[in-house]
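Office hours follow-up: a student asked to see two folded examples consecutively, so here they are.
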Amino acid sequence: MVVRKLEVFGIPLPEITPGTDLARTIVESANRLGIGIRDGDVIVVTSKVVSKAMGLLVKISDVRPSTKARIIARILGKPAWEVELILRNSKRILGAFPAHMLLKHSTILNYISRDRDRALKVIESDRYLMIVDVGYRVATDAGIDTSNVPSGYVCLPPSDPDRVARGIRDRIRELTGCDVAVILSDTEGSVLRVGSLDIAIGASGIVPVTAKFGESDRFGKSKYGGVDLIADELCATAALLMGQTGESIPVVLIRGLNYERSNLELGRFRVPRGLLLKALMLGILISVVIRFLLAIFSVVDLLRGRW
C-alpha cells in the first residue's frame, strides 16, 4: 500500500505595503524558513495581502456616500461608507441577509464567541450582509474587509484574481525556475453552518475543478458527482494555518499534492448568473408545489383515518 501525504507550511510575511514585490517576498520568506520553493508546490495566498501589495486600501474618511448609499445604509443598519464602497465594487445587488436576526436572537452566539457583549456590539454596527455579484463570484459585502488593516482603512479585493494569480506564478518561476500553482483565497460565509470558509477566488497552474462527473465508482456505477472543488479544498486546508485574526500567516505552501497542471482560469467554472437565478426560482417553485401536495396528502390520510 502506498502511503499518501501532504505537507502544509505556513509562511509568515513582513508587513506588505503598496508596491511590494509579493512573489519575491514569498520566495525569500520560504527560503528563510528552510523550506524553499520546489517544482509542483501549491502556494495559497490570501487576497488581502495581494490587495495590500496592489495598493487597494481605501481611507474611510475619504469615502463620500451618495444619497442612494445613505438610504440603503439606514434601511440595513450598515455604515454609509461601507454601502457606498459595496455599490461601487458590485455588478449587481442580489439581496441582503439579516445576520443580526440569526445571531442576536438565538443561542448560537454563545458557541461562536467567547465575549458575547463584544460580539453583540459588532452585530449592531453592521446588521445585514449584502449579497452581491462582483463579476467573478457572488460575495457578501463585495468582499470588502476592515480586519488586519490599519485603523481607519478598508481593503478592497482585486478585480481580476485569476490574472493576479497568474502574475505571481510567472514571477515565482522567473525567480526560482520552479513551476508552481498559485491560488488566491478569501473568506466567505457558509450557507450550511454559522461560520465561514476560505474559498478560491483566483487560480493559475492547476485544474481547479476535477472533471469526473459521470465516471464509474468502485462498483462500476456512473456517479452523479465526482467533481471536486480542488482549489477551494486547498484554500480550506491552508486556512487551518492562516486563521482570521492575529495569526499573521497570509501564505501557505502545500507540498506533495499530485494535481493536473493547467492554465485554465477559475472563472471558467463559474455558473452563469442568469442560469443560476433561473435554477433558484425553479427550485423554489418546485418546493412550493411539493409542500402543497404533501399537505393535501396529509389531509387525505387524516380523513381516511377518521372514516
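And the second, which I mentioned at the end of office hours:
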Amino acid sequence: KPGPIAIKDVADIYLYPNTLQAVRVTGAQVREWLERSAGIFNRIDPAKTEEQPLINGAFPAFNYDVIDGVTYRIDVTLPSRYGLAGKLAEPN
C-alpha cells in the first residue's frame, strides 16, 4: 500500500549483507545511474543478420539496477556511456 516506508522495512526484504542506504538524487543523476546500469547490454548491430548476444557476461550483474516508477528506453544500437569498471567511456 502507498505510504511511508522505513529503511528497516526495506532491510527486512533485502537479501544481501551490503549496506542499504536511501539517497536523494536529481533527474540528471537518475539518468546517469540508468546509463551505468545499461552497460550490462552489448551493443547490437542492426545490420548484422547473425545472432548477437544481448547481455555482456563480463558486466558485474550486481551493478545492474532497475528504477521503478521511471519510464526509460535503452538503445542497444548505441555504445555504452560507461565501461565495465564504471568509468565514463562515451561522454556524449
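Two things to take away from it. Residues 1-92 form one domain. The two ends are 40 Å apart (CA to CA).
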